[in-house]
Design goal:
By secondary structure, the chain is of the alpha/beta class. About 45% of the residues lie in helices and about 15% in strands. A hairpin with a 7-residue loop joins strand 9 (about 275-280) and strand 10. The longest helix is centred in the last third of the chain and has 26 residues, at about 310-335. It binds 1,4-dihydronicotinamide adenine dinucleotide (NAI). 1,4-dihydronicotinamide adenine dinucleotide (NAI) binds near residues 35, 106, 144 and 202.
């Protein structure tokens, strides 16, 4: 028989608390939907993040297995698992950052909006828990359709009297990650050196890459612009079709979500100039929500940057994006207020 000796959770937590009180910061992070295709690799990446001292993994299935597995990684974060609705409140209490990849993904032939009926209810339930147990947490919404689930979350928080628009962030980082990769391929340079702002929303034509603002500065032919715009807008569908019924992007999404969560944590720590694109409450356009570059700080999205100069084709794209976004936002709002 193996020896029964186990390190008690209390001593691990003591360690985590020392870490957060001492020099190095430590944040408490929950992943809701942690046993899913995105949730599992995202949980692993968050366990590897030195800014995380406590990691709560919540799901309605398989949370104990994923937790046991990840807890064996010899990194600093203390990992705890929570299974089922009756453990949601314990999962959320005291969290600084809550990441939500819970819900069903697309199958070939589906749009993100086809997921609305199932995912809207899941996001509502989870956000009611957040409003009750950690109303001051930063919330990263991954569940699709993001263009509607972020407005749903906002309405739930308004109803509960806890809404702070700076702390509610829709995750559109995968669009930026894809844009950087595809643009780097066309330019023949290292994707880590490329930065493409992607604005609007997170579905089809609402995904608007601003190719005129790419860093490092460069120019594209008409054909390159139409190839890149189309590929960036349909990158998700490319993966859905390649997976042929087994789901949508999970590994690249977990990478993107972890990159965005890390930026949120660096903002919370007080780092200067942490800037990422995100779908947030916004006055950049006449719509109540819009994705643009935001500066992340101690209170969340502290500054929302304007669109900057757009060329003619981007202006046309913006009008198309706004038209579709308006409907998706309204659909989310009325899911709660109707
Ligand atoms: P998945 O089906 O592999 O995993 C979803 C997980 O959520 C499952 O483990 C499931 O048990 C869990 N879940 C279901 N109901 C729950 C509830 N009430 N509370 C907690 N957990 C619950 O799906 P996958 O591939 O991980 O995708 C998750 C979501 O992320 C989908 O809505 C998908 O469309 C979205 N997504 C968003 C992207 C973005 O860029 N924002 C990119 C890719 C996917």
């Amino acid at each position: 028989n193996p020896p029964k000796l186990q390190v008690g959770e209390s001593s691990l937590l003591k360690l985590a608390n020392c870490r957060s009180k001492g020099g190095a910061p430590g944040f408490k992070v929950a992943v809701l939907g942690a046993a899913g295709g995105i949730g599992q690799p995202l949980a692993m990446l968050m366990k590897m993040n030195p800014l995380v001292s406590v990691l709560h993994l919540y799901d309605v299935v398989n949370a104990p297995g994923v937790t046991a597995d990840i807890s064996h990684m010899n990194t600093g974060a203390v990992v705890r698992g929570f299974l089922g609705q009756q453990q949601l409140e314990n999962a959320l209490t005291g969290m600084d950052l809550v990441i939500i990849p819970a819900g069903v993904p697309r199958k070939p032939g589906m749009t993100r909006d086809d997921l609305f009926n199932i995912n809207a209810g899941i996001v509502r339930t989870l956000c009611e828990g957040i409003a009750k147990c950690c109303p001051d947490a930063i919330v990263n919404v991954i569940s699709n359709p993001v263009n509607s689930t972020v407005p749903i979350a906002a309405e739930v928080f308004k109803k509960a009297g806890t809404y702070n628009p700076k702390r509610l962030l829709g995750v559109t980082t995968l669009d930026v990650v894809r844009a950087n990769t595809f643009v780097a391929e066309v330019l023949g340079i290292d994707p880590r050196e490329v930065n493409v702002p992607v604005v609007g929303g997170h579905a089809g034509v609402t995904i608007l890459p601003l190719l005129s603002q790419v860093k490092p500065p460069c120019s594209f032919t008409y054909e390159e612009i139409s190839y890149l715009t189309d590929r960036i807008q349909n990158g998700g569908t490319e993966v859905v079709e390649a997976k042929a019924g087994a789901g949508s992007a999970t590994l690249s999404m977990a990478y993107a979500a972890s990159k965005f969560a890390d930026a949120c944590l660096r903002g919370l720590r007080g780092d200067a100039d942490v800037v990422e694109c995100s779908f947030v409450a916004s006055q950049v356009t006449e719509l109540p929500f819009f994705a643009t570059k935001v500066r992340l700080g101690r209170s969340g999205a502290e500054e929302i940057f304007p669109l900057g100069p757009l060329n003619e084709s981007e202006r046309v794209g913006l009008e198309k994006a706004k038209k579709e976004l308006a409907g998706s936002i309204q659909k989310g709002v009325s899911f709660i207020t109707k």
